[in-house]
Write a structure and sequence with these properties.
- By secondary structure, this protein is of the alpha/beta class.
- It has a nine-stranded mixed sheet, with helices on both faces. A three-stranded mixed sheet has the order 6-12-8.
- The protein is globular, with a radius of gyration of 20 Å.
- Helix 1 runs parallel beside helix 2, helix 7 packs across helix 10 and helix 8 runs antiparallel to helix 10.
- The protein folds into two domains: 230 residues, Spore Coat Polysaccharide Biosynthesis Protein SpsA, Chain A (Alpha-Beta Complex); 87 residues, no CATH class.
- 41% of the residues lie in helices and 18% in strands.
- It has ten helices and twelve strands.
């Protein structure tokens, strides 16, 4: 395994036997060492009939709290793994470092799963994703991220689109949107150009959505596994209006940016702007429907916020929510 200026191998557990491994779980981390251990403990409880390994991608090369915590955990754990340092900050760099390392280190790898360091996997998570991939023949399988609020009083926001999964039934789906709970077949990564996730999305998010859109354009298929949830810990700040507003505006901006990438040229740009204006015009009616469903005037603002975010992106106004992790 070669080291590059972008990534390096910080640790490899002695019990890691690469040839038998068919599945790898990649786990990006940034300044959450305590929760990282909880996530790793949930991975140790996975019930599978195939061998798997874990790659932790440390994205704080200056601090290394996650790398140190993961190393100590692997030294006493019953599952094998590695710690990779992504030296360039940004979630896309972290994902790319982990996926590249997995392809390089495990010759019999068939699929890579992803979980974030603020999530806890159910015991049947990995097996569920794998089973759905087999049964549907899908190249990429996603599952629900169930919000668990630090402050139970904020659980009312669980119905906000920022926290609501796009699907609720197992089976084939048109496309996925999040990488926080997903399994990607090796054949997908071997067919896609590097870097897999575009670093242009490092601090605004959306690198996963852009990747999925490019995968779909190449003919790859998608599925959903409702029986493979992860529990996502939601800090109190994500229940504040400022965060919900910023996330909604950002979602709109990402959709416009991706559409511009797929459809370059002035004519296409005008159509995208027209679509944004149409969405803004329709947002009061769509907002009333959300209000009727949730009873929340804040949630009812979502469609208008998305439309505004799309229009703001036309003028280069995009909120980089991941630039300041303490505020995210």
């Amino acid at each position: 395994m070669s080291q590059t200026p972008d990534k390096s191998i910080a640790f490899r557990s002695e019990r890691l036997d690469a040839p038998p491994v068919t599945h790898v779980i990649t786990l990006p981390t940034f300044r959450r060492p305590e929760h990282l251990i909880e996530t790793l403990e949930s991975l140790a409880r996975q019930k599978t009939d195939f061998p798997f390994a874990v790659i932790v991608m440390e994205n704080d090369a200056g601090g290394m709290e996650g790398a140190d915590a993961a190393k100590a955990w692997f030294e006493r754990a019953t599952i094998g793994g590695m710690v990779v340092v992504a030296h360039r900050r940004g979630n896309c760099h972290a994902y790319n470092a982990g996926w590249e390392t997995a392809l390089d280190a495990f010759p019999n790898l068939t699929a890579i799963a992803v979980i974030d360091d603020d999530e806890i996997a159910s015991p049947g998570w990995l097996a569920g994703l794998s089973q759905t991939a087999r049964e549907t023949g899908a190249d990429i399988v996603g599952g629900p991220q169930v919000p668990v609020f630090d402050d139970p009083d904020l659980s009312r926001w669980a119905r906000h689109p920022a926290f609501t999964p796009h699907y609720d039934q197992t089976g084939a789906v048109p496309i996925l949107y999040s990488s926080g709970n997903v399994m990607v077949a090796r054949r997908v990564l071997e067919a896609m150009p590097c870097p897999f996730l575009d670093p242009a999305f490092n601090f605004i998010g959306g690198g996963d959505s852009d990747f999925y859109r490019r995968c779909k354009a190449k003919g790859f298929s998608f599925a959903w596994c409702q029986e493979a949830p992860v529990m996502e810990t939601v800090p109190a700040r994500r229940g504040e209006f400022s965060w919900l507003n910023a996330r909604s505006l950002r979602n709109g901006a990402i959709s416009a940016i991706i559409e511009r990438r797929e459809n370059p040229g002035l004519g296409a740009r005008m159509k995208i702007v027209a679509k944004s204006l149409a969405l803004l015009a329709a947002s009061p009616i769509r907002g009333l429907r959300l209000y009727a469903k949730t009873g929340s005037p804040v949630i009812a603002l979502y469609h208008a916020q998305v439309a505004w975010g799309r229009l703001m992106a036309e003028f280069g106004k995009v909120n980089e929510q991941y630039r300041n992790p303490e505020a995210n």
